[in-house]
């Protein structure tokens, strides 16, 4: 895994993005060269100053491919039907983005004939790149050899995760080293014991281990701290289970988390520079989206009123940064009598209280658009943990560990938990969403905000149900 602005990014996905951006750049040059050759060299563009147009094309198409989820890889799926079902809409979205850019900046404009050839060459090039990529991914040299220290429940969970999470990182599990500190949950065939007179470092070197994951819950007895230090001094990477979970799932597990890991670990950037960049990002994004979606918001308001002649907007008290309460503004998506008894209820995925128009605007996230006004007022950010109602916050603080940590930053219209998990309708769902929220609070950055925006667009476009 690579770490960019504190966020873990798959090396495989990063490499694929890099290669396909190069393919798209090359396709732009190749398409232009073929078209210009057909025209006998007469063109408004010269190949020497063509780079900006080619770069815009590459970025627009790679952005649209990301928005369609084409970099959320599935090696079992390979190049089957979903690839083509996503590639064509990606090109369509890319074409619309390019049309808008060419309208705003005519100097970058490509002719229709050039654009047709460029898309044709790009489609062929991306298919070829993906075919080579998926074939190469089957080779053993892309696997990392990993050794777990521990044989308890935590070690088993780490091992299961390493075997299941094959989309972005492939592991070859060497085995589990028994420390006799936890109750054994690992089959005897997978347990490796360090022989008397031998060392953990020598064992790891003999098995070509690249990384050791310390997955021991009880570290009071029999914990091989000196041997782990020797391993690290010999160049073998050593991490703990909390970091392994954070890296592989992009969430922070709270059930096996040591408070010291949060205190002494990195992240939690609340500096002036980060705050300034965050606020600027909020205002720019909110302003652009307000301009782009204003007609949609007006039509939504009319449809909500026509359906049941009820109120258009819905205000609800929520808990924001540092526990301050504010009224969040949304398009009304439920019946006016959704909470007749005054008792707050969890929102569910297929809530029977949702109206026909409300069902559509919730799935497409249109109901969240009025919260742009909350962003302008400074009560919310564009990206952040979703604000919860005080009634539920009072309950969750008592039963969900570290729940109050999510209130250390401003809540957001969209967030990491929303694009990764979706609606929650119970305390257990709140716990699972909190693990994503903690990851965002710890590792928030402009880079992660941009990724969340792309994932939000993917949720809206392909209705992924989150």
Automatic annotation (TrEMBL):
Keyword Iron set for record: no
Keyword annotations: Membrane, Transferase, Transmembrane, Transmembrane helix
GO MF term set: phosphotransferase activity, for other substituted phosphate groups
Principal place of residence: membrane
Assigned protein family: Belongs to the bacterial sugar transferase family.
Keyword Aminoacyl-tRNA synthetase: no
GO cellular component, one term: membrane
Protein name (Swiss-Prot/TrEMBL): TIGR03013 family PEP-CTERM/XrtA system glycosyltransferase
Membrane-traversing stretches: 12-30, 50-71, 83-108, 114-133, 283-306
Domain of life assignment: Bacteria
Bacterial sugar transferase domain mapped to chain residues: 278-461
Membrane topology type: Multi-pass membrane protein
Subcellular location(s) of the protein: Membrane
């Amino acid at each position: 895994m690579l770490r960019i602005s504190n966020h873990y990014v798959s090396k495989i996905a990063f490499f694929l993005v890099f290669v396909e951006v190069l393919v798209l750049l090359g396709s732009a040059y190749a398409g232009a060269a073929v078209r210009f050759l057909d025209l006998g060299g007469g063109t408004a563009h010269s190949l020497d100053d063509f780079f900006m147009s080619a770069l815009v094309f590459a970025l627009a198409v790679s952005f649209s491919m990301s928005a369609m989820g084409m970099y959320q890889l599935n090696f079992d799926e390979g190049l089957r039907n979903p690839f083509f079902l996503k590639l064509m809409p990606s090109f369509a979205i890319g074409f619309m983005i390019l049309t808008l850019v060419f309208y705003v900046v005519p100097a970058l404009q490509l002719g229709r004939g050039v654009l047709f050839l460029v898309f044709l060459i790009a489609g062929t090039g991306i298919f070829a790149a993906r075919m080579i990529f998926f074939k190469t991914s089957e080779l053993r040299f892309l696997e990392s050899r990993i050794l777990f220290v521990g044989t308890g429940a935590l070690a088993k969970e780490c091992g299961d995760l390493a075997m299941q999470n094959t989309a972005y990182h492939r592991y070859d599990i060497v085995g589990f080293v028994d420390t006799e500190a936890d109750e054994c949950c690992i089959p005897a065939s997978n347990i490796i014991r360090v022989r008397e007179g031998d060392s953990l470092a020598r064992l790891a070197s003999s098995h070509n281990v690249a990384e050791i994951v310390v997955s021991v819950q009880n570290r009071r007895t029999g914990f091989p701290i000196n041997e782990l230090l020797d391993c690290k001094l010999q160049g073998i990477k050593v991490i703990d289970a909390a970091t392994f979970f954070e890296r592989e799932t992009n969430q922070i597990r709270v059930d096996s988390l040591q408070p010291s890991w949060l205190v002494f670990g990195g992240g939690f950037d609340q500096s002036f520079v980060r705050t300034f960049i965050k606020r600027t990002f909020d205002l720019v994004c909110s302003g652009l989206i307000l301009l782009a979606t204003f007609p949609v918001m007006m039509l939504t308001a009319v449809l909500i009123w026509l359906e049941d002649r009820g109120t258009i907007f819905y205000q609800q008290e929520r808990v924001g940064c540092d526990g301050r309460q504010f009224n969040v503004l949304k398009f009304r998506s439920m019946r006016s009598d959704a909470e007749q008894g005054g008792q707050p209820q969890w929102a569910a995925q297929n809530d029977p209280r949702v109206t026909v128009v409300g069902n559509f605007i919730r799935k497409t996230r249109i109901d969240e658009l009025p919260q742009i006004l909350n962003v302008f007022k400074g009560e919310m950010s564009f990206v952040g943990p979703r604000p919860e109602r005080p009634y539920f916050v009072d309950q969750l603080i008592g039963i969900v560990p570290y729940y109050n940590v999510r209130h250390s930053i401003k809540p957001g219209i969209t967030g990491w938990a929303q694009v990764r998990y979706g609606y929650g309708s119970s305390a257990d769902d709140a716990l699972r969403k909190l693990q994503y929220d903690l990851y965002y609070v710890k590792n928030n950055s402009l880079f992660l905000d941009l990724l969340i925006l792309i994932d939000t667009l993917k949720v809206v476009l392909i209705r992924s149900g989150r």
